[in-house]
Design goal:
By secondary structure, this protein is mainly α. Helices cover about 60% and strands about 0% of the residues. α4 runs antiparallel to α9. The two termini are about 15 Å apart.
């Protein structure tokens, strides 16, 4: 399912929920699977396991494999969730900018579709809880600033501190020239879209531009810096033909 479909909340269609009960993207199905694969980690692990002998991106060395697992877990952790950058705000001015952006439509479209499906499928276990969860954020977008917003702004500032700490942890784990050393591994395939999403979330268009993301985080963590290993790793990845093909524009 495409990102355009996600923007229109088509991933909440009942037929898709039959495939992916979480309503998330991506999903992978095959007649041989006992169930659909509905998590990026298990999808990439499956694809990597299907590669011909000697071409797998999971290291055979136990220490390298453990590092790859740690790196993947880090960029999928709540501490560095890019929805923080895309959807949340630390103060009223920042939130007004979000409300004037396409992200407002994104949140609203999700809520409208969830409420529609909840009404059509009142006993379905997905739609009620998901509508309530998204409804908290949607209400903040749709109502004037009040005490709930102040709590939201404080929570967001705390989350940015966690995000900065997560990026510091990434810096400490990277080996170079790629995330786990001499060869590209599954870790790189997980970190690249996460880092690209982070850059795009602050308006970055050029892969070599770290400035916007750094300054964005510094609004909460003044001494934050994107580490030299993270920078070098990213620039090494951007030089690869596969990166240039997939990320002709950052997304």
């Amino acid at each position: 399912m495409c990102s355009h479909c996600v923007a229109l909340a088509e991933n909440f269609d009942p037929e898709y929920i039959k495939t992916n009960p979480n309503g998330t993207v991506p999903s992978l199905t095959h007649p041989s699977f006992p169930r659909p694969l509905v998590d990026t980690r298990e999808i990439l692990t499956y694809i990597d396991g299907s590669r011909s002998a000697g071409t797998a991106l999971t290291p055979s060395d136990p220490e390298k494999k453990e590092l790859v697992i740690k790196l993947i877990a880090l960029v999928h952790s709540a501490d560095v969730d890019t929805n923080l950058i895309l959807l949340q705000a630390r103060n009223e001015d920042e939130f007004e900018a979000k409300k004037a952006s396409p992200w407002h439509d994104f949140v609203r479209n999700r809520q409208n579709e969830l409420e529609k499906q909840k009404a059509a499928n009142p006993s379905h276990p997905f739609y009620g809880p998901k509508a309530a969860q998204n409804g908290v954020l949607n209400k903040l977008y749709e109502t004037p600033t009040g005490p709930e917003h102040e709590q939201f702004f404080k929570m967001t500032r705390d989350m940015y501190r966690n995000f900065a700490a997560g990026m510091d942890q990434l810096e400490s784990l990277i080996l170079l020239p790629y995330a786990a050393g001499e060869n590209v591994t599954l870790a790189d395939l997980h970190i690249v879209p996460w880092f690209s999403h982070s850059l795009v979330g602050v308006g970055t268009t050029e892969p070599e531009d770290f400035d916007k993301l750094e300054k964005h985080i510094q609004k909460t963590v003044p001494d934050f810096k994107i580490g030299p290993k993270t920078r070098e790793w990213w620039l090494n990845m951007t030089k690869r033909p596969s990166f240039k093909k997939v990320y002709a524009t950052l997304h």
